[in-house]
Design a protein that fits this description.
Blueprint: H1 12-20, E1 25-30, E2 33-38, E3 41-46, H2 50-58, E4 64-66, H3 72-76, E5 85-97, H4 103-112, H5 115-121, H6 135-144, E6 152-158, H7 161-176, E7 180-183, E8 190-195, E9 201-212, E10 216-217, E11 233-234
Parallel strand pairs: 6-7, 6-8
Antiparallel strand pairs: 1-2, 2-3, 4-9, 5-8, 5-9, 10-11
Helix pairs in contact: 4-6
Length: 236
């Protein structure tokens, strides 16, 4: 949560703040905390580790908090908080931009991307997975891998911890098949990012899940993952 905010927001959280500040007045701002007000509604945005935020939500000290990575299904099964879980399928897609790679290598990565496991472990929704090619295409691509082994794929991740986790899953599955793929901070020739519309090898639609207190009224999240807080009020 940088302050001042960047001119071009890169993450969903930065986009949320930019949109909110168009209609709310900033009361106080510093890195890690931004306080805004509109009429009688005061909102405090705080940067917290997700599990800490979930604990504070359970204690009634937060009105909204992200569901920690990998905990969506567990939260929906939890009698204490399941009624507070709001899950939204976003328009953005997690995808690998491999345009700098050879056509043969790009085709092999696309044919063998483990979209189903990615959807099961990251958005935790199998229906979020992008379409996979037929099994025969996967088998044919796997047969071509030995001829591509000298080509190294260096993947830079553009996004938050969720994308880094998802990229690590994909890289591990590709390496299991014999492809030389790794996460890299320098000299990247492929880029894993969440974009709308997607660019490159689509893996899965993003899903955003948040805990929202029952006392919050009018809370709605759009397909970009942005909440219009101008419509929100609090039950007394």
């Amino acid at each position: 949560m940088p302050w001042p905010l960047p001119e071009r927001p890169r993450t969903r959280d930065e986009t949320q703040l930019v949109q909110t500040l168009r209609t709310f007045r900033v009361v106080r701002a510093r890195p890690g905390e931004i306080v805004v007000r509109r009429g009688g509604l005061r909102i405090v945005f705080r940067q917290l580790e997700p599990y800490r935020a979930a604990v504070l939500f359970r204690r009634g000290r937060l009105d909204e908090a992200p569901v920690p990575l990998g905990d969506i299904q567990a939260a929906l099964a939890d009698e204490t908080v399941k009624g507070a879980v709001r899950a939204t399928l976003l328009s953005a897609v997690d995808a690998l931009d491999a345009s700098r790679l050879s056509t043969a290598l790009r085709n092999a990565l696309s044919a063998t991307a483990d979209r189903r496991d990615y959807a099961r472990l990251v958005p935790e929704d199998p229906d979020a997975a992008a379409p996979s090619p037929p099994a025969r295409v996967f088998r044919e691509a796997r047969r071509t891998i030995p001829g591509l082994s000298h080509d190294r794929v260096r993947v830079a991740v553009e996004g938050d911890a969720t994308l880094r986790y998802g990229a690590a899953l994909l890289v591990a599955s590709w390496r299991d098949l014999g492809l030389d793929v790794r996460i890299a901070q320098r000299d990247a020739n492929a880029f894993f990012a969440r974009r709308s519309p997607p660019r490159g090898i689509a893996v899965a639609h993003a899903v955003d899940a948040r805990f929202v207190s029952p006392r919050v009224r009018g809370w709605r999240e759009d397909a970009r993952g942005v909440v219009a807080y101008t419509h929100v009020s609090l039950r007394k």
